[in-house]
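Lab notebook, bench 4. The sequencing result for the construct came back, and we need a structural model before the next group meeting so we can plan mutations. Quick request posted to the team channel:

Model the 3D structure of this chain.
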Amino acid sequence: MTQNSKAYLNEDLSFEERAKDLVSRMTLEEKVFQTLHTAPSIERLGVKAYNWWNEALHGVARAGVATVFPQAIGLAATFDEDLLEEVADTISTEGRAKFNMQQKYNDTDIYKGLTFWSPNVNIFRDPRWGRGHETYGEDPYLSSRLGVRFVNGIQGRDEKYLKSAACAKHFAVHSGPEDVRHSFNAVVSKQDLYETYLPAFKACVQEGDVESIMGAYNRTNGEPCCGSKTLLKDILRDEWDFKGHVVSDCWAIIDFHENHKITSTPEESAALAMNNGCDLNCGVAFGRLLYAVRDGLVDESTLDQAVIRLVTTRMKLGLFDDPKKVPYNTIKYDQIYNKNHKEVNLTSSRKSIVLLKNENQLLPLNKSKIKSVGVIGPNADNRKALVGNYEGTASEYITVLEGINQYLGEDTAVYYSEGCHLFKEKVQGLAAHNDRLAEVRAVCDMSDVVIGVFGLDPGLEGEEGDQGNEFASGDKPNLDLPGIQSEIIKELYNSGKPVILVLLSGSALSIPWEDEHIPAILQGWYPGAQGGRAIAEVIFGEYSPEGKLPVTFYRTTEELPEFTDYSMNNRTYRYMKNEALYPFGYGLSYTDFVLNKVDIHSDEIIPGNEIICVAEIENIGKMPGGETIQVYVKVKKEGAPNWQLKGLKKVHLQPGDKETVTITLKDEAFGLYNNEGQLILNEGEYEVFVGTCQPDSRSIKLSGKKPYSKVLRAKETVTLY
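Done. Here's the predicted structure in token form:
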């Protein structure tokens, strides 16, 4: 048989036409086993074995050496869309380099494919959720913008081929608790579903053209997400016109009968998922489709459609084409953590750091005036606190202690103490309570300035089942610093020395005492393998902090609603009633920016029209720096959110420089969803805020900046869609 008689090998045809031809040649058994993440080879058709499971949350994960970028929540704190695409493009380059190498040596194992199950665009609804640091924070708009650009970077911008395939997860309404995720039913109103939980997924589908969607473990309003007609058919396929493939979360389909009790047998579970649009099973449940098709639970044509979608993705990746025609096949293994990737990594670490407090401009420190520095705390030399979860293996790790030592060199004495265990009451098992207290006091005595490095690590917050997770499920029991960390921080304060507190964590912590007493506080997240170098540079003024909080820092755990309550009432900056400790969108700088000539070019909101916001931003300080212009919209209607982020732009300026920024708001930026899931532009008044922070009183007090505002009006109520 000639090549041209096999339509699936004809590169002049569309990928979909070729995929249909290839699937038509498969037996029932062959088709069934192509729907498992461990898809076997079909030698007679020239189909190679392929493992669909790969991860790239903040770098190519779990497959050896790769650049380890800041955890996703840290990338979100950059508020920098362009950076997110650059980071994802770098990840995708390394993914291709590793794939090309692995194919050369016939390695088709798990974590060796080009289908990356990233990004995680779930909403960080509750700060106790252990997996929240995998997300882009609590705001649907920010998550949408960053998610789309991450997808763009992963998938590339070639007209024909995907560089890699991205996957937006976990669809939908998923944010803990981890310990009951296999049986939990997330009950949510249609209004909250469309207003909060779906926008980032919708943006990834309709703007990012994401190739894949992963379902969640839980049920949403009674339906298991990986077999939900509402989510997978009505919304994803019919409303949003999604053309890619859907993958289950790993072993989620067996939860249908074992935990959710929605079905009675493995065959029924496989049928429910397949019939509602789940194409690929991470796990083994779809092996039962052989019986499900035989017994009439699934039409073979439905199975065909799923396999066609899967083969189409592999064809888009160039896996069935002449290797010389696929541009990404030329990426060599020397692209792993090269000089340029190292610089992108360091830049992203610097940009992610958020300056929460800087009393009397204690920071930046002048190293020429300091003879000795104390570095104290359980995260000062903790590699785990650099990387978060779903991580690769870096070829170099720089902890905060190492970064400070490297930066200061031999001219300045650096004294170190672990201070305390991360979560236990003592470091050594046989010792007394607080067994590093004397050492802490000694280090403070010998030091001109003390840098305390505290917080969490992914052993304390993460996914259910993660090895070594102290709290078992992965979620945090509260927002407090664990163990005796607070005691040690008070010792640093009592020493009378200037204290800088560096927090490494993937989520918000409750630190009202520290905010009142410690003069300088930095939030470093899990800053990536180069994180210690970046933090040292920021502390000593090589770089001005520019990060903004993608989550709210609450004052207490007690003010939070029940963890299992998925209503957005009193959650996140958009709906909370109390004053935040540190608000969403907040972050200080070493330099100073002002907005001039702010204007909103309209008084009326007209359906189909855009609102143009213009501002001139100027760096009037003494250092180069970055600032984020933020546009919020408040619907002046009872029951509406406080205000919502609807536009942003990251700007970098040298001292004395200025730039005019234009941010365009579409009519949908003023809409609110109703209980039927319709986006309504309501007749009435709307206030638009343009500034560098939220318009709440706490942000204004902390930053000393008050956003410009203008009231606009819509003259009629209109259903936008």
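The two ends are 52 Å apart (CA to CA).
Will bring this to the meeting.
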